[in-house]
Amino acid sequence: MKIVLITGATGLIGQEIVRVCHEKNWTVHYLTTSRQKLNNHDAYKGFYWNPKTNEIDSSCFEGVDTIINLVGASISKRWTPDYKNEIIKSRTATAKLLFDTIKTNNFPIEQIVSASAIGMYPSSQTNYYEEDFEPISTSFLGHVVDKWEDAIDQFSSLGIIVSKIRIGLVLSEDGGALPEIIKPMRFCAGAAFGNGQQWQSWIHIEDLSALFVYVADNRLDGIFNGVSPNPVSNSELTKIAAKVLKKPLVLPNIPKFVMKLILGDMHILLFESQRVSSQKIEEAGFNFTHHHLEPALEDLLG
Predict the structure, then answer these.
(1) Peptide bond into 122 cis (omega under 30)
(2) Which residue range forms the structural domain that includes residue 160?
(3) What is the pTM of this model?
(4) Which residues belong to any copy of the NAD-dependent epimerase/dehydratase domain (predicted)?
(5) pLDDT at position 197, please?
(6) Would strands 111-117 and 161-167 be described as parallel, antiparallel, or unpaired?
(7) What pLDDT score was predicted for residue 262?
(8) Residue 131, CA atoms < 13 Å, CB-side half-sphere
(9) Which of 269, 282, 300, 149 is nearest to 228 (CA)?
(10) By C-alpha distance, which of 233, 202, 232 is closest to 300?
């Protein structure tokens, strides 16, 4: 029986990946910083760690051949200087703790499948990004992803297969961006941002979780974009969401300067434009269930 170790297993994406693993009869070990979240069931076993003090229960690696790494502070909070540092350290320090523990104990880990983000790609309304695109974005998000991926790449020095999933806009009814996007629409106050032409490379959470497990199950190495085959503009996303909710769009587009006043530096999350390709993972044999935005939103919101 396959045993996987998941960091961030109790988060939005992690919970869905755990469900898919259990459907395949895989046993899940997970790391948590909360002792209250420790469980010890046959197929779902929790282990405590505290990356800030370099503390980890190394028995979490027993029988494990694959790590799925999802840990990282949310980017959806206001980016103060201190919180920017937390965003980076929560990704790099955790990777270092895993790496050092595996190296010191010579644990026979075969693969790490790590979350990353399409924030690596520069904002553009004309480019179509594949995984080998260079140069990377000079934005704060580009800097975060660059440091994050460097921290994961070091595992290859231990003979471990390194796989990275660059995640786009994750659509889920249970959290993330979608509930925030549709909240004003329920009060007939929805609107696109800026000129609405910025690309949104989205993915249904069911497809994303299946993609992570597919990469682990098939020992795929390298970088893969975690996005659906059909990105849309922000304006199209807004219109389709309103249509699915059967709500009118009566307000003008929201100017960039307004959101900058409200959100500070974090406003770029709403205005960055990345049209990202899913061709590589499809050519590796992965089949998306949710190809187009409208049926995906109907599945989530209908």
Answers:
(1) no
(2) 3-237+242-301
(3) 0.96
(4) 4-133
(5) 97
(6) parallel
(7) 84
(8) 19
(9) 282
(10) 202
Burial class (CB in 10 A: 0-12, 13-18, 19+), 247: middle
- The residue assigned the tokens 């990275």 is 164
The residue type at 208: L
pLDDT at position 1 is 81
Residues in the chain where the model's pLDDT stays below 70: none
CA distance linking residue 199 with residue 201, whole number of Å: 6
SS3 259: helix
Instruction: Return the pLDDT at 82.
Output: 97
* Residues 278, 168: Cα–Cα separation, whole Å: 11
Query: Of 61, 63, 66, which Cα lies nearest the Cα of 47?
Result: 61
pLDDT at residue 263, rounded to an integer = 85
For residue 263 the two structure tokens come to: 């959100």
CA atoms within 13 A on the CB side of 68: 35
Instruction: Name which of 217, 68, 235, 242 is nearest 152 in CA terms.
Output: 68
Buried b (16+ CB within 10 A) or exposed e, 250-260: eeeebeeeebe
Q: The tokens of 130 are what?
A: 């594949």
Q: Which two tokens stand for residue 37?
A: 């979240």
Output the DSSP codes for 164-206: EEEE-EEE-TTSSHHHHHHTGGGGT----BTTS-SEE-EEEHH
Sign, CA dihedral 196-197-198-203, equals positive
Per the structure, the count of domains in the chain is 1
